[in-house]
Each structure stands twice: as structure tokens, then as C-alpha cells.
Design a protein that fits this description.
Number of strands: 11
CATH topology of one domain: Tetrahydropterin Synthase, Chain A
Number of helices: 9
Distance between the termini: 177 Å
Helix content: 40-55%
Order of helices and strands: HHEEEEEEEEHHHHEEEHHH
CATH superfamily of one domain: Band 7 domain
CATH class of one domain: Alpha Beta
Shape: elongated
């Protein structure tokens, strides 16, 4: 024991009384402090750790008989329960209505998750979720890219056009989207640029700037969608929007007839050309309208003259036919009664001749008085003239 050995360092005498002798050479003085041994410090630390972990401490001052205790059973149960909770938390997941999930078994496709709560036993089965309703936008052109020449494209009439446009897309098949593309945004940008250049290369500059923008947008969208479907990317292109379609905004040096030079912007010169072409088209339309008006008037006048001539011809022919018919009728009557017909023709001729002659008829036959004393001949003439009018 430590008391029989003369202290914790074992430096006492051979007898028990010598350890208490103040005059012995090997004995220690009663007022000298004792220094604890390392083993004792370690035992105390183990005891405190055992108490903290739920175990029981050793009896007072006695030596330990178990040689170090392990962790209690409750600790293992708590650790196992925590591991199960963490595993369940990693295995269960929720898919919202606007999402699609893809489950992978050891990295390979397993199935498509359903809306709501799903179970994927981790780590054998993992999952990826994608929002399939959110519209994603890729902007291309000078304003949408770091490359300042990306929006410059060549048309079929060897002109350069500066185009800024947007491609709006979303995910329609999460499985294809996950396995076909490593960087979907860059792929959509590259395919969209290639499609736009192909369509612009088949178009002329003037229609692109004026009237064919909607048709070009539709053609580009169809071409992008066709390329994405051929590669099974699971992407749906919703629309293509033009932000800007202009000639290149660069400056060139123009030499005049007199030899002077000036710096002119390409877009300004192109706009001047466009304005001149529009004015030319307007003048051509005005000339065509005037020509059509005069031609229509000439055609109308010609048709009117033809109609008048046709009417006059019909009138003369009908009159001749009528006269011939009347003569034939008179001739027929003349053959039947020549004297009567002759008398009738005479009277009708006198009627026609005397109808427009200023005349006074006086009856001198039986019962007539001849010339009357007063006859207002002037008034009779006026009345006859008024009646003839």
C-alpha cells in the first residue's frame, strides 16, 4: 500500500515507524505536500467520464477492479435512433405540382417520381428534382453576350444585320433533360445562335427589317425545337423574341465627288437609303394610281362612245325598218284603193308642210261672210306661235 511505502513516490524506510520519524535520513517531513501520481489522475478522469456517460463511480479510495468501462447501452440506442431519423430524412422527399423528379438507382435511371411524397432509399436510390413550369430566358446578341460580334449576321443579299433576340424555354421531360445535357443553358444558346444564322442567311435584309420579323421568329423557333428534339434534350422552346434588328452601328469614311471625305455611320446611311426607297415606292404608287385613274376614265369614255354609236345605229336601223314597213303598208293600201290613198297622202303631206307655217285660213264658202270688218291678226299670230311653242 502507499502508506506502507512511505508516500506516493515509495521513498520511506523499511519499517512503518520510520516513516513517521522526524530524524530519519530517508523519512519525509510531516509538512511536505504530496504530489499525485499520473495513474491516479487518469483514474479520476475515467471516473468523471463514466459518470457523465451515465455509469457509476468506484468506491471511495479503493483500486478499480474493472480495468476501464465501455459506453452505456442508452448511448448506442440514441445514436442508432438518430441514424434512422437521418436516413429517413434523406430517403423521403416531396415533389411539388410544378416539379418533376428523376430517381436514380446507383446512378442509373430508375423511375419518374410522382407528385407528393416519394420514397427513395438512400444511398442506393437518389433523386433529382427540376422545376418544369418556370420559363428560362437566354439573351443573345450584342447586348446579351460578351462577344460583341455575336449579333452580326450575314443575309442572302450579302448585307450585315445586327440582331438581339431572346429564347424563352422550359423543361418538358426531366429524364431527357438530366441525361442529355451537361450545361443546358450553353447548349440552348449555341443551338439558338446556329438556327438564327441559318434563317437569316436565307433572307434578304429589307424584309428582315420591315415585314418578315414574325415569320423569322416562327421559323427560328421551329428550327431550334427540331434540333433539341433530335438530341432528346427534354427542352421545349416557347417563343423567340426580337429585341433589335438594325444594320451594324459602325462608321465608315465616305469620299464625295469633290474629293472631300467625311465619317458616316453605317446605320444612318442605311436609314437614308431606306427613306429614299420608301419615297420612291410612294411616288411609284402615286404614279400607278394616276395611271389607273386615267386609264379607267379613258376606258369609260370609250365604252360610252361605243354605247352611243350602238344606240344610234339601232335607232337608224329601227327607223329605216319602220319607214320600210310603213311604205309597204301604204303600197298595199294604194293597190287596193289608189284614189283614196293618193288623197290621203296629199292631205298628210300638206299637214306636215303647213304645220310650221304662219297662216290665216278664211272661209268664203256658202254661209261665210268673207273678210270680217275687224280681225286681230296680230293676236292670232301670237297665239299660234305660243301654241306651236
Amino acid at each position: 500500500m502507499a502508506d506502507n511505502n512511505g508516500g506516493p513516490w515509495g521513498g520511506g524506510g523499511s519499517g512503518g515507524d520510520k516513516g513517521n520519524n522526524n530524524g530519519g535520513g530517508n523519512g519525509r517531513k510531516p509538512d511536505t505536500p504530496q504530489i499525485p501520481e499520473i495513474d491516479e489522475l487518469m483514474r479520476k478522469g475515467q471516473e468523471q467520464l463514466r459518470v457523465l456517460m451515465g455509469g457509476k463511480g468506484r468506491g471511495g479510495g479503493g483500486a478499480s477492479g474493472d480495468g476501464g468501462a465501455g459506453l452505456p447501452r442508452g448511448t448506442f440506442l440514441f445514436a442508432g435512433l438518430a441514424a434512422v431519423v437521418l436516413w429517413l430524412f434523406a430517403s423521403f422527399y416531396t415533389v411539388k405540382p410544378e416539379e418533376q423528379s428523376v430517381e436514380l438507382f446507383l446512378g442509373e435511371f430508375n423511375q419518374i417520381g410522382t407528385n407528393g411524397l416519394n420514397f427513395a432509399p438512400w444511398p442506393l436510390v437518389t433523386y433529382e428534382k427540376f422545376n418544369v413550369t418556370t420559363n428560362r430566358t437566354e439573351s443573345l446578341g450584342i447586348n446579351g453576350s460578351r462577344d460583341s460580334g455575336l449579333g452580326l449576321m450575314l443575309t442572302t443579299d450579302e448585307n450585315i444585320v445586327d440582331i438581339d433576340f431572346q429564347v424563352v424555354w422550359n423543361i418538358k421531360n426531366a429524364r431527357d433533360f438530366l441525361f442529355s445535357l451537361k450545361e443546358p443553358e450553353l447548349s440552348v444558346r449555341a443551338i439558338s445562335e446556329a438556327a438564327m444564322r441559318e434563317v437569316i442567311a436565307q433572307s434578304e435584309l429589307a424584309p428582315i427589317l420591315n415585314r418578315d420579323r414574325a415569320a423569322i421568329e416562327a421559323n427560328v423557333r421551329q428550327l431550334i425545337q427540331k434540333t433539341l428534339d433530335e438530341r432528346k434534350t427534354g427542352i421545349s422552346v416557347l417563343r423567340v423574341n426580337f429585341n433589335k434588328v438594325d444594320p451594324p452601328s459602325r462608321q465608315v469614311i465616305v469620299t464625295a465627288v469633290d474629293g472631300s471625305q467625311k465619317r458616316v455611320s453605317v446605320i444612318d446611311a442605311f436609314r437614308d437609303v431606306q427613306a429614299a426607297e420608301q419615297e420612291r415606292d410612294q411616288r411609284e404608287r402615286q404614279a400607278d394610281a394616276y395611271a389607273n385613274q386615267r386609264l379607267a376614265q379613258a376606258r369609260g369614255a370609250g365604252a360610252e362612245i361605243l354605247e352611243a354609236a350602238e344606240g344610234y345605229r339601232a335607232k337608224v336601223v329601227n327607223a329605216a325598218l319602220g319607214e320600210a314597213s310603213r311604205f309597204s303598208a301604204v303600197l298595199k293600201e294604194y293597190k287596193v284603193a289608189p284614189e283614196v290613198t293618193r288623197r290621203r297622202l296629199y292631205i298628210e303631206t300638206l299637214e306636215k308642210v303647213l304645220a310650221n307655217v304662219d297662216k290665216i285660213i278664211m272661209d268664203n264658202g256658202e254661209g261665210g261672210s268673207g273678210v270680217v270688218p275687224y280681225l286681230p291678226l296680230n293676236e292670232l299670230r301670237k297665239n299660234s306661235q305660243g301654241g306651236s311653242n
